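User: I'm putting together notes for a lab meeting next week and I want to include a structural view of one of the chains we've been expressing. I don't have a solved structure, so I'd like a prediction I can at least talk through. The sequence is below, exactly as it appears in our construct file.
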Amino acid sequence: MLFNSYPFILLFLPIVLAGYFQLGRRSNLAPVIWLALASITFYAIGSWQFLALLLLSIAFNFGVGHLLITAELAPMQRKAALAFGLAGDLLVLGIFKYAGFAAENINAVLGTHLAVHILLPVGISFYTFTQIAFLVDAYRGQVARYALPHYALFVTYFPHLIAGPILHHKDMIPQFERKESKNPDAHLMLCGIIIFAIGLFKKTCLADGIQPLVALAFEARSPSFDQAWLGALAYTFQLYFDFSGYSDMAIGISLMFGIFLPVNFNSPYKATSIVEFWRRWHMTLSQFLRDYLYIPLGGNRRGRVLRYVNLMATMLLGGLWHGAAWTFVVWGALHGAYLCVNHAFHALAPNVSPRLARPARIAGAALTFLAVVVAWVFFRAASVEWALRVLQAMADPSNIVFGREEIAALVLIAIYAALVWLAPNTQGLMGYDHANRRVGETLRTGRMRPLVLYAASLVLAFGFLGIQSHSEFIYFRF
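Assistant: Thanks for the context. Below is the predicted structure for the 478-residue chain, given as structure tokens.
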């Protein structure tokens, strides 16, 4: 089931909201169980064949976590329990996500004919990483004892289950335990609807609207210079508004339940360096990779050379997390190299004088965006060979078509660029403050309420009318 679908908006969401708040009048636990069952139903509607795997994953990780939290184990026993839990999670993820990729590479090297065809369970990367963080924190003694319904809801919570953000137990489970969130809050409901409307518009009108231009680069066998650039930029903006739209819709839906999700997307194309880009793009994944991979590997504590090795290893694994293909490995390697160059530059280059600070920021933003666009070519292409073909066309200005279709595409891309760099992002527009649990404070005064309501109604109407029969979010594949 998709957020941008009529059954979800008109049927599923209203029923779940009504049941949640109705049960909240009588109990603090019943709404949690209701929402967990609704989340499981949400998953089962689209991926019923993998429902048992999701439930087994929850039971397995809750059991191992319970052992780490409550049992008085010796240090070696605790390490063994953690290793058992992590091995189980990674084994399942490896089988379902990487077995086919491994078989293809074995066949290519050894000339064998192994055939592995396993469907990828939707959301497995997100709920696996969420639970790995839970187990590691339980081992570190940083997890309180949680009831099974709250843990199950933490893993399956439907606004995040399919495409993130990667949730953290310390942030979410205490919110599920709060009695106040079981009572409807008119202000949070209004803000949630507005943010959901903005996200729906981004997805159905902006991301889906520019999708046909992506074919100029990635479906043409010999794109020209202008077609390759237009197609690459179209995908760059399509992915931006698709992921931004999902992030907004997830936050908006969650606010309707009185729950604040972490911000996962913060105008990444405004970044002035690749380091800043990764603080703004898929922010919860960046935090996970930093806290549970980069820092345990040693981070920057063992010298500059090992720091760069750790960065490359982290980003290579981050690339593989996105998909089992060499294109994602190259994409991760590129971003790892970008980060190494960025850190080396900051370590070796002299400080910029105040007079040159603004030009330096503009140059940094332009260079960062160019590097990101080049990497997105590998992220989108069907193969490394196809990506290199697109990049070769992007580097050959002697081959230009620039007909009527290309001119129209250029105008559309200029509009998208203006929205990306000049328009405020949703959390800035709505004053969304996840850390302090505040949103839409300017609406409380009533002065801005009519204008915002009219604008939100218009945006929701456009987004609602733009819904297509089947338009998945790009991150559903990961």
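A couple of points you could mention at the meeting. Residues 187-477 form one domain. The first helix runs from residue 6 to 24.

User: Perfect, that's what I needed.
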